[in-house]
Amino acid sequence: MSDRPRVAVIGTRGYPSYYGGFETLVRQLVPHLTYNGWDIDVYSRPGHVADEPLPDGVTQRFTKGVESKSASTLSFGMTATADAAWRKPDVALVMNVANGYYLPMLKARGIPVVLNVDGIEWHREKWSPTAKRVFRTGARLSAKFADTLIADSVEIGRYWKQEFGRETTFIPYGGTVPDSSNERLVKERLDLAPGSYVLAVARFVPENSMHEFFEAVRFLDPSTPVVVVGNAPAGDPIQSAADALAAERTNVQLLGHLKDDELLHALWSNAGVYFHGHSVGGTNPALVQAMACGAPTVARRTAYNDEVLGGNGRLVEPSAPAIAAELENVLGDERVRKHLSNAALQRAQAGYGWNSVLADYTDALLCATGRWES
Questions:
Q1: Phi, psi of 16 (to 5 degrees)
Q2: Does the pLDDT of residue 1 top 60, yes or no?
Q3: Distances (CA, A) of 49 to 13, 26, 42, 71
Q4: What pLDDT was estimated at residue 373?
Q5: pLDDT (0 to 100) of residue 38
Q6: Taken in order 173, 178, 183, 187, is the CA torsion positive or negative?
Q7: What is the distance between the alpha carbons of residues 278 and 108, in angstroms, rounded to a whole number?
C-alpha cells in the first residue's frame, strides 16, 4: 500500500464541473484531499468539465456512456465503476443511489465504498414510474452493499433508517461566505439596487415550485424587479411559463443557468428576498449558499428546508397567493430583511461551513480504508 491513499470519485459529471450540488461538493473536496496527501481519480463525462488546471495528484478519467435523461447516470456509472474496480483504489466515493447496481463490482475487488445517498429520487415528479422503480431498487442495493452511507440531512438519515434499516453518517453541504456583498456587480451587470429585488434560483422542475413562483410574480407589484436563475429545455412547460412571464412583464429578468459564481453570490448577497421552492431532497446546496450570502429567505414548507433554516427564514405553502404575500412581507420591511439576513449568515457559519464538511468527508474516507479509526 502506498503512502498516499487513492480515492475514486464516481457518479458526478466530473471535476471541475459547475452543474449541481454533487459537482459543487467535488470542487471543494478534491483540492482539500490533495492538500492532505490523497491521490484522486475523478470519473468525468466528456463535455461536462471546465478547461481548468488540475491540482497535483488529480486524474480525470473519462469513460463511455449514453447522454440522455434516462440513461446517462446508469451508463456512465457502470463504465466508471468497472474502470475503478479494475484499477483498485483504496476507497470509492460514490454519489447517487442509481450506482447501487454496480457496487458488487467494487466489493468483489475488496474496495470499500462510501456512498452519498442524495435525496429521495423516486419521489421526484420528473421521473417516470419505471425510473422511480430503478432509483428505489438502486437505493435498496446501496443500503446492502455500501460500507458507509452519507446523508446530507438528519431527515434523510431518519428516512433511510426507517425504510432500509441502515444507519447513515450526517454530512451536509457547505456554503462559502463571500468576501464582500459586491453591490457594484449587480448594479453594473443587471442595473439592480441592493435590497430591491426578488430572487429565485432553481432548475425548472415541478418539485422546485417554479410554476407556483411564476404565478406568484403576477400578484406582485409590476415595478418590483424579479430575477430568475435557472432554466429547462426549450418547449418545457415551466420554461414556456417563464418565457411568457418575461415577455409580459419587463420587471422580470431570466438569466438561465449561471456558471459565474461571483455574480450568483452577489445576487444572493443583495437580494431583497430569496425564494427557495425545493421540496424533495435533504440539505439543498443552493439554500446553504443563499444563507452563507445572507439572503433573506422565503422557502417552501418542508421538513428539509425547516431543518436547514433552523427558524432563520420564512416557510410558506406552495400556492401562488401565499408565496406572493410572504415575499411582499419580507421585501417591504427593511427591519425584517436585516434580521433574516443576519440570522441566515450566522446559521450558515455555525452549521454549514466547508471546513467541517470537508474534514468529515476526509474522516469518512480514512475510516473506510482502515487507515484511521474514530
A1: -85, 135
A2: no
A3: 7, 12, 11, 19
A4: 47
A5: 97
A6: negative
A7: 38
Q: Are 79 and 70 in contact (CB under 8 A)?
A: no
DSSP code string of 65-122: ---STTTHHHHHHHHHHHHHHHH--SEEEEESGGGGGGHHHHHHTT--EEEE--S-GG
The single residue listed with the C-alpha cell 468525468 is: 44
Residue type, 315: L
For residue 42, give the C-alpha cell.
475523478
What is the helix (H) or strand (E) element at residue 309, kind and residue range? helix 303-309
11: its cell numbers: 457518479
74: three-class secondary structure by DSSP: helix
Grid cell locating 292: 452563507
How confident is the model over 26-34, as a mean pLDDT?
A: 96
| pLDDT given at position 121 | 85
For residues 331-349, average pLDDT: 97
Q: Count the Cβ atoms, other than its own, within 10 Å of residue 105.
A: 18
For the chain, state the CA radius of gyration.
21
2 vs 126: CA distance, rounded Å:
44
Question: Would you kindly state where each structural domain of the chain is located, as residue ranges?
Answer: 6-174+353-369, 183-351
Query: Between 210-217 and 320-331, two packed helices, what is the crossing angle to 10 degrees?
Result: 60
| pLDDT per position as a tens digit, 207-242 | 999 999 999 999 999 999 999 999 999 999 999 999
**Cα distance between residue 284 and residue 279, in whole Å:** 10
Residue type, 253: Q
User: Is 40:57 a contact under the CB 8 Å cutoff?
Assistant: yes
Same fold yes or no, 6-174+353-369 and 183-351: yes
Tell me phi and psi for residue 213, to 5 degrees.
Answer: -65, -45
Which among 30, 345, 357, 354 is positioned nearest to 175, based on CA atoms?
A: 354
8: confidence class by pLDDT, cuts 50, 70, 90: very high
Grade residue 2 by pLDDT with cuts at 50, 70 and 90. low
pLDDT at 27 over 60: yes
Query: Distance between CA atoms of 16 and 39, rounded to whole angstroms?
Result: 16
CATH class of 6-174+353-369: alpha beta
What average pLDDT score do residues 144-166 get?
A: 97
**What dotted CATH number matches 183-351?**
3.40.50.2000
